[in-house]
UniProtKB/TrEMBL annotation:
The lineage of its organism: Bacteria, Bacillati, Actinomycetota, Actinomycetes, Nakamurellales. Pfam families: adh_short_C2 (PF13561). The keyword Oxidoreductase applies. Keywords: Oxidoreductase. One of its GO terms (molecular function) is oxidoreductase activity. This is NAD(P)-dependent dehydrogenase, short-chain alcohol dehydrogenase family.
């Protein structure tokens, strides 16, 4: 493989067994990183890591429940000791839940917040000292356009806003140690995570996306790689939105489509 944009560095990517996380793992490996894939989907994770190795990359898979603090501590300590460094963390693991405030009990909220907020928080807490002892590092938290707007999934939206806020706080706290922290906010992506979302709802999101399509996982991965690379050396505490224009103009496009429908009905 070519030297690459993150050559010689070590990346820990959660939720890396499949979908967007797997795309990130493949890209980071192709760009020269040693990739530590972490997930609870062990069969998929082992398969993805093996595919990366078969392509000439360096990758290993580890089981990690991001809600388990002791598991985080053990994994980070192991990686730091065996590989000698840890340069990049991508907090990609997440879970969705489309229920609203009235329909969702606190246990449901706890599950979403545990995975989407406390998991990344613990991850940052564990890797920061290891990065600080080295040459610094880069952390990317995968939020969502739901972390920039109002959305129809109460706990999920709240978790993505919280992750956005924690990202900014961490960027300030870790700056003196040479650690950059940013968030990526994808729009609609075709991954297994949306397999339970009704097709009509997915089509609705695409309709109000100015580019009129969903993203491919690889398009998100390139944004994550950029923020982890030296090309983004003066970027920290910010959001990178990868949404085909959804946040910029989705509301206006939705209104325009609705007005057209009304006009068509009135002219019928």
């Amino acid at each position: 493989m070519n030297a690459g944009r993150v050559a010689g560095k070590v990346a820990l990517i959660t939720g890396a067994a499949r979908g967007q996380g797997a795309a990130e793992a493949r890209l980071f490996a192709a760009e020269g990183a040693v990739v530590v894939l972490a997930d609870v989907l062990d069969d998929d994770g082992e398969t993805t890591a093996a595919q990366i190795r078969a392509s000439g990359g360096r990758a290993e898979y580890h089981h990690l429940d991001v809600t388990d603090e002791s598991a985080w501590s053990a994994l980070v300590a192991d990686v730091g000791e065996r590989l000698g460094r840890l340069d990049m963390l991508v907090n990609n693991a997440g879970v969705g839940d489309r229920r609203g405030i009235i329909d969702m009990g606190l246990r449901g909220w706890d599950r979403v917040l545990d995975i989407n907020v406390w998991g990344p928080l613990v991850g940052m807490r564990e890797v920061a000292p290891v990065m600080a002892r080295g040459d610094g590092g880069a952390i990317v938290n995968i939020s969502s356009v739901a972390g920039l707007t109002g959305y129809d999934a109460a706990a999920y939206t709240s978790s993505k806003w919280a992750l956005r806020g924690i990202t900014k706080t961490a960027a300030l706290e870790f700056a003196n140690d040479g650690i950059r922290v940013n968030s990526v906010h994808p729009g609609t992506i075709i991954t297994p995570m949306i397999s339970d979302v009704p097709d009509e709802l997915v089509r609705s999101y695409v309709r109000v996306t100015p580019q009129r399509r969903a993203a491919e996982p690889e398009e998100i991965a390139t944004a994550v790689l950029y923020l982890c690379s030296d090309e983004a050396s003066f970027i920290t505490g910010t959001e990178l939105v990868v949404d085909g224009g959804f946040v910029a103009g989705g509301a206006n496009l939705s209104l325009d489509l609705r007005l057209r429908e009304i006009k068509e009905v009135s002219n019928a």
